[in-house]
Each structure stands twice: as C-alpha cells, then as structure tokens.
Design goal:
This protein is mainly β. The protein contains two helices and 25 strands.
Length: 445
Amino acid sequence: MKKIITVICAVAFATVSAFAQVMEKSGMKNTAWTGFGNPFDGKTQYFGLTDTLQARVNRGNVTVEGMLSWSFLANYDNEGDVDNFVWGTTNRNPLALHAGYNNSGCSTGKNTNKFIGGKYSNAVNTTNALQDSYYVNFFCHLNKNFDLGVGTKLNWGSCPAPGYGAWIWDADAHNVQGGFSTSYDERGGVFGQTSSEATGRYQYSVDAPGTSDVVGFVHYANKYAKKAAGVRFVTDGDFYLELGSALPNGFNTSDPAINFGAIFAPCDWLKFGATMEGAFEEAANFYTGATIGAGNVVVDVYLAMDSLFTDVDDDEAYGTGVAVTFGIPSTKITLRPELGVNFFQYDEYTPAWYTGALFSLPFNEVFEFRVWGSFAQGSRDKRWDDSSATDDYDGGHIITARPSLKYMVSKALSLDGYFNFEKRKAFDGEDRNAWSTGIFCTYKF
C-alpha cells in the first residue's frame, strides 16, 4: 500500500484522496479564512472569518484526533446590509457562503424557501456545501493487523472518487461532481434517530429532475466508516489487503444497517476497492473503484449505485466515471481531467454528466498555481415535453472556474488565494451567477 501511495503522490494531487479530510500523522494544523463575494441574486458583501483547528496524537497503541471549526460571520438581515457579526462554532464554510448562506440562513435577507412564486429561490444551492463543525475519533491498534475505531469522521474507505473528498481550502474544493446540486452533504445527516441525537444513517434518496435547479449527483459510498464504530483487518508488506465493517450511527436492532468495505492491492501499481453502505436494509448504497498507476499516469475509475433494494419502483441511480492524472515528465506540472455520467433507473430521467479538469503549475518551491474548471449538464424529465408550460425545460447546466495561487511562506506556513466563479442555468431557464474570493492561511505545527 505504501508503494501505491508513493506512486499516486508522485504524479497526482494529495488532496484528491478520499481520506484527505482527516490528518494522516501526529501533529496540529490550523487554517484560517477570510473572503468576500457576490452570491446568487445578491450584492458584493464581506463574509467574515472562519478558523479550523485539527490535531492528532499517537500514544502507543492509541490514536486520538479531532477538529473544531469556529467563525466570525457577517449577518445580512437588513436587505443585504451588514446587521452584525456572529461568533461561534459553525458548519458553514467558504463554499457555502459563496452561494449566499449567512448566519440567519438567508440569501441577502431574502426568503430561503425552495419555491417562491412557483420558481426556486436563490438559496437552494447553499446547504449541500455544509460540513460538520467538529469531529472526534478514537483508534485502538490491537496489533499490527487489527484496528478498532469509533468516531464522528473515521473516513475509512476504499478507492478515491474523482472530484470529491477534499477539505474546503484545497484547490479542488469545488462543488462535488462538477457542481450538481443535491440534498447530500458530508455531515452526519438528519435521516435517523438515536437515543439522544438526530443524525444520519447514510440513507439517501435519488435526486429527481426538478427537485432543485440542477440535479444529477449520485452519492459516492466509498467510505464504510464515517460517523460509526468499526473494526478493520489490514495486512502489511507488499501485498495489501484491508477488510472492514462498521455500525453506522443510527443503527438499531429493529432495522439494522451494517457497512462493509474491502481494499485489495496485489502490486504497487494497482488497487481495487468496494464498499456496501447500509447492508441488510433497503436504500443501501454500493461503490466499487480502482486506482491504476503506471509511470507518469494514474487512472481512477469507479461505479456507484444508490438506493438499491427499495420498495419504490424505479428509484435507483448509478454513477460511473474516470479521472486521469498526468504528470508531465521532467516537470512538476500535473493535469487531472475528469468525466462522470449518472444514470437513473426511471426511464423518464435523462442521464446527467459533467467534465472538468484540475491543472497544477508549480513555479518553484514557493509558488504554485492551480485552476479547476468544469461543465455539468443536469438531468431532465422527459414528461416535461407533454406540457407547453415545461416543454422548454432542459435540466440546466453549471459552469465553474476556480483559479488559485499558493505561497509557501515556510515549511509550516502557507497562504492560498483563490477566485471562484459559478454560472448556473436552472432547469426552468432561470440564470444564477455567483463569485467569491478569499485567502486561506494554514499553519502546521
């Protein structure tokens, strides 16, 4: 496994890993952000400050890690004018604020309900970028092969999924899968109920055309232990095998849900992975993928299946795609194009697709330029053609561009400035544009 990671990191971005959201070794890291922008149907405004502190400690056979995110966000309750600043823990971040989500839950003081006058409001794209305000994980390494873990963000998974899994300050922190709007996010969720906390059991319904302005995203079930208690067996040496299982938060004996995962790496240039999320219950999700690395080229391929075994007819969805990372010989330049296509079991829903690319150009050891760009086409319902009121609906599309420039002040301190532009055309023909800019300051110690 170590050889595979070495090959991938030599020619790809470390942030494309599905495990990028938790620290991989002992230490502490703090990332502060400030920025401003023009959200959907708003006016240029200052968003405020956020600060995210992460720490990991290894002591013998025990590992403890955690994260806490704070903010000092501007509150726009007065028709887009600054009302006050609110301090506290937060699950809001630069990508959510980019769409106009402020402390009151309003977009520039306007109504955030999905429907206003029969059309969608401009705040419907904000919640899919939220993240947990904290995580806490505990691991016990029973021996060199067995791990026990319990936590709110274990991130035990199989293979990386293109365009997904980075922290919000990474260069590829764009909306997932090219920008498709969805009700899914990386938090625990609100679908299940435990004895003391309303939180998710990883049950996701399939987005239908018209449920948001542009839809088509299929959830990647490539992590078998997120907010969960899990156990895994891991071999060491050149031949790598990982087998794991977890009880997700919300498990109950009347309606049990168990997650399974496996990784198989027979050599240093090939890795396979598979995950079942919510086994033994309806609406289970399945993911399988592979990473193939040879020379200056690394290929990620995947297949995701959502809402399997449901009683609802034609409720399943499937996503497949590929990402190829090219390392230019004799340079540190890398290019990572992606292509993803999502299909629906319901015949009336057309496929959704996206294509994008992440380009990295290090000028030297101090400066690095990166840019992400993508185009996404949403799914449409063929039955729209049956009515003159909807026959011009086309599913909508999204164009995004996100250039950034990173400056390494020292080995411990980095500054990353970016500009994020997003142009959305909704399924009903309404245009929504947004832009934001800001700077991240990250210190590792």
